[in-house]
Each structure stands twice: as structure tokens, then as C-alpha cells.
Design goal:
Structural class: alpha/beta
Oligomer: single chain
CATH topology: Rossmann fold
Number of strands: 10
Number of helices: 8
Shape: globular
Length: 246
Amino acid sequence: MKIHFIVHEAFEGAGYFDHWVRERGYLASYSRVYLGEALPSSTAEFDCLIVLGGPQNPATSTAECAYFDSKGEQTLICSAINADKAVVGVCLGAQLIGESLGARYESSPEKEIGYFPIKLTEQGSNDIKLSAFESTELVGHWHNDMPGLTESAVVLASSDGCPRQIVCYADLVYGFQCHLEFVAAQLPALITHSQNDFSEREKHRYIQPESDILNAPTSRMNKILGDFLDRLVVAYCENKNRRTLV
């Protein structure tokens, strides 16, 4: 399996995704756009595209952030979906998936920063790729916005602060507004970048103190993310084999 990551910022890296790739012996490649690295020229370069988060939103222009090409990323995402690749978006990445399919991102009802529970919907409880999830799971959050929904999109999980935490756009295409990939090592840099948010913590119901975020365990959410990814790979390989036989 060849996994390609789009990384928007040094302080918001792949986290547990990197561990999962190494543990499974897969091949990883990266477009670190904040360093000026190019997006893949062809979807033939990967089996799975993982688009990570960042402080931008899909409407951010190159005038506002020179290295973030929202339209270019959306074009790649759409091409990957049309080529039957597995596609996973996290936070900004989830919003970009929706945008690539014609669904505009929206502001979340609440800003969420820290660890708060998500709850599976009925459809989420019936999605085999989320079989490792309990009906309620404590996971990471770091967002103001949420992904748009296409007519065929299915919301698989929500939180008290945001109704669109996990969205299935197609059998191989999933958007996570929440952050199951967080690991302890990456959080100090993310906190440092977000000092303005913490200075307004009293204005928001769902922003935790920095110390609570730094001390929260991540192993459970990392484990269920790994199980989801394993099941996504199985579905991708089964689909690829079917196409080969036709």
C-alpha cells in the first residue's frame, strides 16, 4: 500500500497515521505544502490519500496563504475519488473533501479544542469500518468549521459542539472533523500556535485548559483509528480486485 499525505503545517503533522504506516510496512510519501512541496502529479502515485488539518479553510486564497492551493487540492481529491482510491480527510482535509464534491463547508455551532466525546449515529453504528468504536468515544478536536454534506453523504458521528464529526461520502471516502490521530508529542507545538484561542477560553464552552490537553491519553482513539484504517484498506483491496477481474 502506498499512502500519500498532504501536510499543511509543521505543527499539525500526521501523528498516529505515521505510526500506522510504519507498523503495517506501507510506503509513505508526503506533500509538505508549507515547505513548497508539490502535490502528486497523478493518482497512480498512491493507493490512499490522507489530507491533514491546518488553520486554513477551503475558502483561504493563495493571497492569504501563499502555499495553500485549495483548488489544486480539491482537484486532486476529486481525481482520487474518481480513480477509486481510498481518501481520508481530517479537519481541514474533511472540509476539502466536501468542497471537492460540491458541498460547501460551514462554521461549526461551537469551537472545539481539546478532548470531548463523539457519539455514533445509527448509520455509524452500522458502518463496519467503525466496528471498533463504542457508541461514545473520547477523541481530540481542534476546529471552528465543519465539512459540507453532499446529497449522498452520511453522518456517522456527532458531538455536542458539532453535528458533523465523521462523514462517509462514499465507500472509500471518509471525512473526520475530529482528530483521532493526535499523539502527545505533537500537541505542544499545536498549543503554541493556538494561543489566541486559549486566551478566549472563557468565551467558549468547548475549549479545555492547555494542561488538560497535554495530559489526556490518546491510546484508545489511536487504536480505533488504526482499526478503521485497516478496514478501509481491506475495502480498497477488495474493490481493486473486483475491478481487475472485470
